[in-house]
Design goal:
Number of strands: 2
Structural class: mainly alpha
Number of helices: 5
Order of helices and strands: HHHEEHH
Strand order of the largest sheet: 1-2
Shape: extended
Helix content: 55-70%
Distance between the termini: 27 Å
């Protein structure tokens, strides 16, 4: 999640930090994440099939230029976040903490049961 916050916040130049410059509080992370999530939802709501077909180019850290359709870039973002959710789950278990469920279908079922 931290990397996600950095990636999502970097575009706006707003990273989560505590007043002392150390590790942010859980409250600060939650507040920042709520802002990031609203921005992402608004962005996604404005996408059309035409926009998703547009090409996005970037230069990686090796100086190589790559170009992909926007839909593939967004797919990569979701896939990459899956990797990090697994990392966080592993770290929590190593600390003998109980991680939250990250299974999509369980979350989907819970959402409909709670409505």
């Amino acid at each position: 999640m931290g990397e996600g916050l950095c990636h999502q916040g970097a575009g706006a130049g707003q990273l989560v930090s505590s007043p002392s410059g150390g590790v942010p509080t859980l409250t600060a992370v939650r507040e920042r994440w709520a802002t990031v999530e609203r921005g992402v939802r608004n962005y996604l709501a404005g996408l059309t099939e035409e926009i998703l077909k547009l090409h996005l180019s970037y230069v990686n850290l090796k100086g190589e230029r790559w170009t992909y359709p926007l839909w593939q870039t967004l797919f990569h973002v979701v896939n990459h976040q899956t990797y990090h959710r697994g990392q966080v789950t592993t770290l929590l278990r190593q600390l003998e903490a109980q991680p939250c469920a990250i299974d999509y279908l369980l979350a989907h079922d819970f959402r409909f049961r709670s409505q």
